[in-house]
Amino acid sequence: MSRHALATEAAILHSVQTLDHTLRDASPAQVIETALKTVGREQLALVSSFGTESAALLKVMADVDPAIPVIFLDTGWLFEETLAYRHTLIAVLGLRDVRSIKPSEEALSRQDPDRELWFSDPDACCRIRKVEPLARALKPFSAWINGRKRFQGGARAELPVVEEDGERLKFNPFANVSREEIEAIYKLAKLPPHPLVASGYLSVGCMPCSSRSLSGEDARAGRWRGRSKSECGIHTMKTS
């Protein structure tokens, strides 16, 4: 690694540690406001799945600045209800810049011509349908926002508010929030729920790898059910 690269990495790490300490007890809106002030709107993006809890973060963002770019990964395996919900939230929240990103057609035809990769190698499926498209989509940005929460457990239990993601800053405005606080945001703002919540889906991703949650289960128990896999990869691999 060159001296310049080492200096850049050290500067990013220092910035991350400083911001994380400063925002340790900040509200989600304050985290997003700080992200905007730190890098500016043109360098900041929010990544949303438009899933079962997405409206809360999108609402907070829209109250701060509805023109912040929102990246939506259209994997080709999403529920029709999710695609419809995206349109609903865009209208309800007045989101001004939602960008739907799709996988590379070349990668799909080469690695998943029969659309069965989700079954034989779900990690590879997530890589070509989520990780690689997101890495391309984030190239113009120097920081991004996502909706992970500590209460979701697993690898997310020790989630910082700000973390380093390659050459980018990664903001987690909802790291500290509780499920009850998210429900309060929905209730106060009268946000429409994801259509599949009524059918028992507490967490929704791609159709083949999402299932209904049973009573008492963790919210993400229905994701990749029966497998050791618990993350798609966009939060466990560097995007740059």
Count the DSSP helices.
Answer: 8
String of helices and strands: HHEHEHEHHHEEEH
Outline type: globular
For the biggest β-sheet, the strand order reads 3-2-1-4-6-5
Mean pLDDT: 88
Biggest sheet details = 6 strands, mixed
User: In total, how many beta strands?
Assistant: 6
Runs with pLDDT <50, length 5+? 4-8
**Over all CA atoms, what is the radius of gyration?**
18 Å
Please estimate the helix content.
Answer: 25-40%
**N- to C-terminal separation?**
15 Å
β-sheet strand percentage: 5-15%
Overall SS class: alpha/beta
Structural notes for this entry:
The structure is a single chain. The chain is an alpha/beta fold. The chain has 8 helices and 6 strands. The protein has a 6-stranded mixed sheet, sandwiched between helices. Strand 5 and strand 6 (168-171) form a beta hairpin. The longest helix is centred in the N-terminal third of the chain and has 20 residues, at 3-22. The chain is globular.
Topology:
Layout lengths: L2 H20 L5 H12 L4 E4 L6 H11 L5 E4 L6 H14 L4 E4 L3 H7 L5 H4 L1 H16 L5 E3 L16 E4 L2 E4 L7 H11 L51
Parallel strand pairs: 1-2, 1-4, 2-3, 4-6
Antiparallel strand pairs: 5-6
List keywords for this structure.
globular; 8 helices; 240 residues
